[in-house]
């Protein structure tokens, strides 16, 4: 596979927040890829394969200080309106490649098309602010549910809570871990909340943990699965956040405000405070590589 703009460049592939991305460092900001090249390299059969492609650019200030910019595209080559959790991956990439020094508790900021974004190193993970989400209705906020839900693979009708931000999710709590496994993603609602996704949550109780400042605090632990259009999806940040908002609403005055999710995509922590949401998760670089090919053959 030959993409001239990437010739001789060491690329990386990493994942965070339930999605993976190909990273190409464009330190001086001189490399531009066309959408066809982006879709080719992101193709999981013809190319390397990824959900997204991300360019990391260094910006030098007049006094010699440096800052960073992220440009991100979907696997189709269309620009992302907001890189979201990829900011976390960009921070990890800069740190592990030695482009920046980033000790625990330090923050790196990025310019993005959606405005400034930042990630703070928090142990083995990175903390980021996320959009605030709330129950979609007064009924949901007061009663803890606003829709009756029937799940394929499970018996009986359950109560669901619609959580809203820039999109909507219906969150349903299941009592047993077996129920979490048995659900197929098929769902019927009454009334129809016109939600984009279904989130199943299996609460596992509260636990005490030693926080970053040395203070012991309680956290609510839960397992989850997320579905969209009946198909299971990776546990992306906004779905873990919506699950945490539902658990917070259901707990009322006994809510811990700190939620730790375990899923096949790893561990994610959500902290809910008045007017803000902070999501912490790991990021991982899984490969470094260079594109090769024979001139005149294939791409």
């Amino acid at each position: 596979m030959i993409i001239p703009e990437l010739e001789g460049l060491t690329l990386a592939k990493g994942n965070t927040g339930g999605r993976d991305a190909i990273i190409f460092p464009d330190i001086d900001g001189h490399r531009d890829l066309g959408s066809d090249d982006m879709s080719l390299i992101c193709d999981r059969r013809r190319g390397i394969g990824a959900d997204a492609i991300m360019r990391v650019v260094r910006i030098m200030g007049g006094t010699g200080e440096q800052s960073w910019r992220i440009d991100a595209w979907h696997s189709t080559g269309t620009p992302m309106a907001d890189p979201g959790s990829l900011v976390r991956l960009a921070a990890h990439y800069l740190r592990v490649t030695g482009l920046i020094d980033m000790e625990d508790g330090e923050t790196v900021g990025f310019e993005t098309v959606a405005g400034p974004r930042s990630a703070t190193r928090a142990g083995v993970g990175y903390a980021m602010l996320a959009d605030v989400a709330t129950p979609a209705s007064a009924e949901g906020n007061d009663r803890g549910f606003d829709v009756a839900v029937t799940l394929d693979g499970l018996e009986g009708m359950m109560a669901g809570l619609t959580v809203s931000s820039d999109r909507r999710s219906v969150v349903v709590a299941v009592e047993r871990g077996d129920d979490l496994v048995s659900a197929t993603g098929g769902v019927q609602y009454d009334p129809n909340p016109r939600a984009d996704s279904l989130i199943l949550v299996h609460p596992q109780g509260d636990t005490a943990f030693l926080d970053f400042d040395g203070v012991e605090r309680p956290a609510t632990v839960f397992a989850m699965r997320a579905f969209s259009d009946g198909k299971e999806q990776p546990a992306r940040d906004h779905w873990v956040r919506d699950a945490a908002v539902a658990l917070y609403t259901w707990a009322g005055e006994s809510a811990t405000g700190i939620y730790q999710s375990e899923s096949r995509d790893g561990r994610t922590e959500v902290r809910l405070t008045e007017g803000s949401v902070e999501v912490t998760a790991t990021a991982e670089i899984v490969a470094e590589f260079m594109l090769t090919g024979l001139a005149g053959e294939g791409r």
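The mean pLDDT is 92. DSSP finds five helices and 19 strands in the chain.
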